[in-house]
Design brief:
Number of strands: 13
CATH class of the largest domain: Alpha Beta
Number of domains: 2
Pfam families: COXG (PF06240), Fer2 (PF00111), Fer2_2 (PF01799)
Number of helices: 11
CATH architecture of the largest domain: 2-Layer Sandwich
Order of helices and strands: EEHEEEHHHHHHEEHHEEEEEEHH
Keywords: 2Fe-2S, Iron, Iron-sulfur, Metal-binding, Oxidoreductase
Organism: Neopusillimonas maritima
InterPro entries: 2Fe-2S-bd, 2Fe-2S-bd_dom_sf, 2Fe-2S_ferredoxin-like_sf, 2Fe-2S_ferredoxin-type, 2Fe2S_fd_BS, Beta-grasp_dom_sf, CO_DH_gsu, Diverse_Oxidoreductases
Distance between the termini: 44 Å
Strand content: 25-35%
Radius of gyration: 25 Å
Strand order of the largest sheet: 6-7-13-12-11-10-9-8
Protein name: Carbon monoxide dehydrogenase
CATH topology of the largest domain: Alpha-D-Glucose-1,6-Bisphosphate, Chain A, domain 4
């Protein structure tokens, strides 16, 4: 591991990275800037193109550690860039995108063309774009967009653009104009969870009325992953439930497929096995529990990798215990997860989200069973049994009932 200090989209970033980590993976997995797409991962297709010190670079073949002290600009960092603002409008007007997968890299290259070659004709534009592959559009709309922006700045000179062109001609970084945004950056995922934790600490509801939090609604959180909100009731006092939920090994024993192999304070290492139709994985990794004792709320942050498919998973499990009655408590669960690799195709499937909600429901039943054990019992908690077939059939049956109006989401 080595310490990496760079500036990403105008914000300072300091992280430890492995020497073999590529910049594209670092941007997507560590900073959750998923606008940078990875496709060929050989530096051929151009989908992963970002700016390093104002110049387009293939992030899939650039080591993150080699960017020490550099300024990185991704598709999320162009909001004040006058060239990119015109290019985005032109791409929209000329129908220059369809699936959009190549678009972030295509826009970065197009911006470079406008900067370096103010008098470029169609033939030169096509040559410059040849390093970016698009499987949808046939390039006609993309070429027309670049040419229209070049013409715009010839007809209506822009002082900022002229200054950026002079800097590029002198070999200096032609970066987007700076904003008043703060120069510290802690990552989208962490900031989001912190905001939610503050809302919970202040007594705010886990989700607005009608949002489906209680029923287990699943939504996509842009740039972060898929969010599933659910919960369950337990016929025990809230204080007792919270005490139990603070015991990581006891909690793991209630989660189907989960095993904790070692624990040091609030940090644990273990694995969780998942089998769902064609998806069969065993993620092994580590997690850290952050607790708020006064509000009986916590967030378990974890990451792991499946040894078979090499897919990577990250997830934050936030939960809060509230009192419903003297002998009854409610546990609200907010799961935010993301997958990278071959298994990512399953992550947003509605059936998979139903599967996750069913796991949460089974987890709640297991918590009740564990709490029912006699006080003072030293007997180890048995691991929760996991029946993939039973759970799969349960999910399918619940979906069929909802389809015909005969059941509600759990």
């Amino acid at each position: 591991m080595s310490q990496l200090n760079i500036e990403v989209n105008g914000r300072k970033v300091s992280r430890e990275v492995l020497a073999r980590t590529h910049l594209g993976d670092f941007l997507r997995d560590d900073l959750r800037l998923t606008g940078t797409n990875l496709s060929c991962e050989h530096g051929v297709c151009g989908a992963c193109t970002v700016l390093i010190d104002g110049k387009p670079v293939r992030s899939c073949i650039t080591f993150a550690a080699a960017c020490e002290g550099r300024q990185i600009t991704t598709i999320e960092g162009y909001d004040t860039d006058p060239i990119m603002l015109k290019l985005r409008d032109a791409f929209n007007t000329n129908h220059a995108l369809q699936c959009g997968f190549c678009t972030p890299g295509m826009l970065a290259t197009s911006r470079d063309i406008v900067l370096r070659l103010p008098d470029a004709d169609e033939e030169r534009v096509r040559i410059e774009l040849s390093g970016n592959i698009c499987r949808c559009t046939g390039y006609q709309g993309i070429t027309a967009s670049v040419l229209s922006v070049l013409k715009h700045f010839r007809d209506e000179p822009n002082e900022q653009v002229d200054a950026m062109r002079r800097a590029a001609a002198q070999g200096k970084a032609a970066l987007p104009p700076e904003t008043d945004a703060p120069k510290t950056f802690s990552g989208f995922e962490a900031k989001s969870i912190q905001r939610e934790a503050k809302a919970v600490a202040n007594g705010a509801d886990a989700a607005p009325a009608g949002s489906g939090a209680a029923s287990g609604a699943a939504t996509s959180a842009p740039g972060k992953g898929t969010s599933v909100k659910s919960g369950f009731n337990v016929d025990f006092p809230a204080v007792k439930v919270w005490e139990f939920m603070s015991d990581l090994k006891a909690v793991a024993a209630c989660l189907p497929g989960a095993v904790i192999e070692s624990q040091e304070g609030n940090e644990v290492k273990g694995r969780i096995a998942i089998k769902f139709g064609p998806m069969n994985a065993a993620f092994k990794g580590a997690a850290t529990l952050e607790r708020d004792e006064s509000n009986m709320s916590a967030v378990l942050r974890g990451a792991g990798q499946d040894s078979l498919s090499q897919s990577r998973a990250k997830g934050d499990v936030g939960y809060r215990v509230t009192s419903v009655a003297d002998d009854r408590a409610r546990v609200d669960v907010d799961l935010l997860y993301s997958l990278q690799g071959p298994l990512a195709q399953f992550s947003r499937s509605g059936l998979v989200q139903d599967f996750v909600k069913r796991m949460i429901a089974d987890f709640g039943r297991n918590v009740s069973l564990r709490l029912s054990q006699p006080e003072g019992s030293d007997a180890p908690l048995p691991q929760a049994e996991f029946s993939p077939f039973k759970m799969f059939m349960g999910v399918l049956w619940a979906r069929i009932k909802r389809l015909f109006g005969g059941g509600k989401e759990e």
